[in-house]
Amino acid sequence: MNRARTDGTPARTSSSPTASPWLRLWGAYVRWTARWPALAAVVPFVPVVALWAIVAESGVFPRVFFPGPMEVIRSFGKLMYNGILPAYLEDSVLRLAAGTAVGMAIGIPLGLLVGLSDRAHKLLWPILLFFQAIGDIAWLPILLIWFGFGLTTMTFVIVYTVLFPVVLNTVLGVRSVPLELHRAAQSLGASRARVLWEVVVPGALPNIVTGLRNGLGYGWRALIAAEMIVGTSGIGFLMFDARRSGSVVEIMLGMIVLGILWYIVDSWVLAPIERATGQRWGLVTR
After folding, report:
1. How far, in Å, CA of 160 to CA of 225, rounded?
2. How far is CA 172 from the centre of its chain?
3. CA distance 80 to 265
4. Exposed/middle/buried for 102, CB within 10 Å: 0-12, 13-18, 19+?
5. What is the pTM of this model?
6. What is the pLDDT of residues 82-129, one digit of tens each?
7. What DSSP character marks residue 20?
8. Is residue 164 within 8 Å of residue 132, measured between CB atoms?
9. DSSP E strands, 116-236
10. Distance (Å, rounded) from C-alpha 217 to C-alpha 229?
């Protein structure tokens, strides 16, 4: 029951706030995505695809220059049926895997060396910063003279691109390990090798994984650019070759395949590994 105030002004009636339809819809979306996480990867693209279809059907742009979603889906089915898309996709993924493996094999030991040794840091750090500033694509003209159009050129570009994020993040991880942990392990009789393996590497591992995640992202983009310029197969070559016939639909298909593939690799593989690594070594909480 409402009571009048002593000064004669009417008292405000207390009522519970009513949630707006948009707020209720957002709450339902949060609940659904918590129950089915895959929805969180699909739903945000629904308005994008809808807008794309509306613009394509409106006729604002000629259909040959701006195909709609159905044309891209039909092109996807055609290229999958004749085997071109699976073969090119396999070539791109294998090149990325090979370049990343070589980049990690060089980058992690080099990062550990630069991070642990002050002499190596003073000697190599300026060189690392110098070559990091030179973009991977800037190497293509001289690589074409040295190695020609082939796998060696593309592999070099990927290794070069992956190397620096891995090295720099490894150095950061090594130098972020407190010196007290080094001294504590040594006081317990641990050798330098055991300190490296049981103290330094675990402490630097979250940074190493972050560097690998960033390096793979940069390497993926560098690979596509290299395939466009020097490749004879791969998704980048598919997109660049489509321009000769003016096939915008194949170019758009290649762009969509690149985005979907990287989203799957980053969200379903790299991000969980990075998160699990941080949780394992106590740097983040669940």
Report:
1. 14
2. 20
3. 21
4. middle
5. 0.78
6. 999 999 999 999 999 999 999 999 999 999 999 988 899 999 999 999
7. P
8. yes
9. none
10. 19
